[in-house]
Amino acid sequence: MLSIERIPDQIGYLVLTEDGAVLSSGGDLENDERIANVIVGLVMLTNKIDPKAFPTGESFEKISITYPDHCYIICLSNKKIYVVKKKLSLSEKNIELQQFIDI
Question: Which residues belong to the signal peptide in this entry (predicted)?
Answer without folding.
Answer: none
